[in-house]
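Weekly modeling sync, notes
Attendees: S.R. (lead), two postdocs, one rotation student

Agenda item 3: backlog of single-chain predictions. S.R. asked that every request posted to the team notebook include the full sequence so nobody has to chase files. The rotation student volunteered to paste the first one in as an example of the format we agreed on. Action items at the bottom.

Example entry:
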Amino acid sequence: MYITTLSKPIVSGNIVILPMKKPEGGKIIINGIEAKPENVVKYDARVDIMDPTTKKRCFIIEHVLGPLRMLGITDAIVLGLDKTWNFLRPEHRFAYSLGLTPEVVVGREDGKQRPKLEEIINSARLKTDKQFYVSVAQEVYFKTVDIFGHKGEITITPLPPESGIVLNIELFKNSIEDIRLGENGLEDKHLAKKILDARTPFLIGIEKEEALFHAIGDVIADTVGLGRLTDAKIDVKLNFFYHSLTVGAIKRAKTIRRGAFQ
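Predicted structure, as returned to the notebook:
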């Protein structure tokens, strides 16, 4: 996969997305904290990361990572823009209790992934001449049982370079197969728009079709964003607090990487 960043800053709701001056392949930094598995400190209903040195925390990073990777951006710097507290939001209350400021919450208030980002990112996409490849070293299988007794399971299978991501996903009664993520992000651009505009299941209910669309973005965030995978087959049956499943699998996975695949 070609390393891709931005040619100029763009604003999307409550974040600004900046070019990465020295892109490495899959490196996304949010509020100064690198989004990688070892920096994850919460992964259930949402995903938070924390700088191990400063202890600064960043909330709901999946709603940054998923949209960027599904639109073909591999490397970027992201800064939160919120300046006002909304204490109806639990992450705002938690951030306030830690002495942090509102911009550490990078997820949108309406629970959507990142509506209309595809319309503004196309003019700013900058593909480099460098390539990278990341896959799992061997098949990864992981399962969880949520607090309601629902079983979730995920299998991540390695694929050779230039295969891309192949995703089969089930969320309770809804499912989609053969979702493909390649050089320029999701191949199905109509599906990409639906995902970016979809609200979180925790606001609308887990069994609605819109919840499945949102969950696709979250799975991409956790496996392709945090895990930096470029080529793998992912089969996943999600349960309620599904980040425990997807991030849990990525934390356990051993990956192989080629920094400049030719």
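Discussion: group reviewed the output briefly. The domain at 2-127 is CATH 3.30.230.20 (Ribosomal Protein S5; domain 2).
Action items: rotation student to repeat for the remaining queue; S.R. to check formatting next week.
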